[in-house]
Write a structure and sequence with these properties.
Elements (H helix, E strand, L loop, with lengths): L4 H23 L7 H28 L4 H28 L8 H4 L8 H10 L2 H18 L5 H21 L4 H20 L1 H9 L9 H24 L12 E10 L2 E2 L12 E4 L4 E5 L6 E9 L4 E8 L7 E5 L8 E7 L2 E9 L1 H6 L1
Antiparallel strand pairs: 1-2, 1-3, 1-9, 3-4, 4-5, 5-6, 6-7, 7-8, 8-9
Helix pairs in contact: 1-2, 1-3, 1-8, 3-6, 6-7, 7-8
Length: 361
């Protein structure tokens, strides 16, 4: 039995690419002083795989080689390179070499972080979660190395790898990591393609379906469709629920502050200096006082007719001075003036909306 030329290209190219990334990823840190040598060896694997394609094609036409055994060799090589690459990533998670965020990064404001930095901070929060991913990567990789469990290993690994690819794309992770994940994903898709008939038979064989009437079949189809339709309709009805006050929502900087009829120097570093105000979804309000560590967080109720506002604070726990205030209409620069009483103090603050948010409205 002959192997098609495009099938030869696919298995050799994918195996070579995974060999390149697998070898480089495994030894690049251990042999950091010999990085150029590691790179040369890695690329030589890809080069050898590509050169082998025409050699294999010629030998097959002459009938000199057992082409099915050669195909099995390249499939096994592909699985080995995928396995060692994923096990390398898994081992890094176990030994805190991946999913680790330096303290300087975790102390930054979330809005100042890039997508890749957000990903690092998020995954570094739970070592146990990283450990679960590592175990899945190792178990799936081991299953790939045995012919009988190869397809099961691909099913275990594909959701993990697909998730990595999507994170790399939508969180702007470095291009090299994305390409490496895509190469591994291609290897798993190739294994699926090789067994597509068995997979199709397993999931879609009509022999597995019980015979039912057309009416019952229609009812079942409608019931299945409802699992998607009902939540979608409910969420459509509640679409504006989190933010019922778009005219005031946003982030503001305090450009002018008057407390008890006395103008306050905004350049002061006083702990009580109000510097930023956030009117957020779910009627949350935040007063920031010169630092992210000095927040007052509360819940506001707002009357659109007379533009009055009441704020009940829930953080810090010992602060209970309710704010009663009114908000002016936005001026041409989309700025607000907040005037009110909090505890025994009168408060007047001119709030300047962040330029990016003002443009997006």
């Amino acid at each position: 039995m002959n192997v098609g030329f495009f099938r030869k290209i696919a298995v050799c190219a994918i195996a070579g690419l995974n060999g390149l990334f697998g070898i480089h990823e495994t030894f690049r840190l251990l042999l950091k002083a010999y990085d150029s040598v590691v790179s040369e060896v890695s690329f030589s694997v890809l080069f050898a795989a590509l050169i082998f394609i025409p050699v294999w094609q010629i030998a097959e036409k002459k009938g000199k080689w057992n082409t099915l055994k050669i195909l099995d060799f390249w499939k096994a090589s592909l699985c080995y390179f995928v396995a060692i690459d994923l096990c390398m990533f898994a081992s890094r998670k176990i030994f805190h070499l991946q999913f680790y965020a330096p303290e300087g990064l975790t102390d930054k404001v979330a809005s100042s972080l890039s997508g890749e930095q957000l990903t690092i901070v998020y995954f570094s929060h739970s070592y146990a979660f990283g450990l679960i991913i590592a175990v899945m990567q190792i178990c799936g990789s081991l299953l790939l190395l045995f012919r009988r469990t190869r397809l099961l290993g691909a099913f275990v690994l594909f959701p993990v790898v697909a998730n990595i690819i999507l994170i790399d794309i939508f969180y702007d992770v470095e291009t090299g990591a994305l390409i490496q994940a895509i190469v591994i994903g291609l290897a798993l898709l190739y294994l699926f393609f090789m067994e597509w008939k068995n997979i199709f038979e397993f999931f879609f064989s009509r022999n597995r379906q019980a015979k039912v009437s057309g009416f019952v079949r229609f009812g079942l189809a409608l019931l299945r469709f409802s699992t998607v339709a009902i939540p979608m309709v409910i969420c459509f009805i509640l679409y504006d629920y989190p933010n019922r006050h778009p005219e005031i929502s946003g982030r503001y900087e305090v450009s002018k502050l008057n407390i008890n009829h006395r103008e306050i120097d905004l350049k002061s570093c006083s702990d009580s200096m109000l510097t930023k105000v956030y009117f957020d979804d779910n009627h949350d309000v935040v007063f920031e006082r010169n630092s992210l560590k000095r927040w007052r967080v509360g819940h506001f109720s707002y009357n659109k007719q007379n533009r009055s506002m009441k704020v009940i604070w829930r953080y810090p726990k010992g602060f209970h001075d309710t704010l009663w205030a009114t908000l002016s209409a936005k001026d041409k620069q989309r700025n607000l003036t907040l005037s009110g009483i909090m505890g025994r103090d009168t408060l007047v603050a001119v709030l300047v909306q962040k330029q990016a948010e003002a443009k997006s409205e």
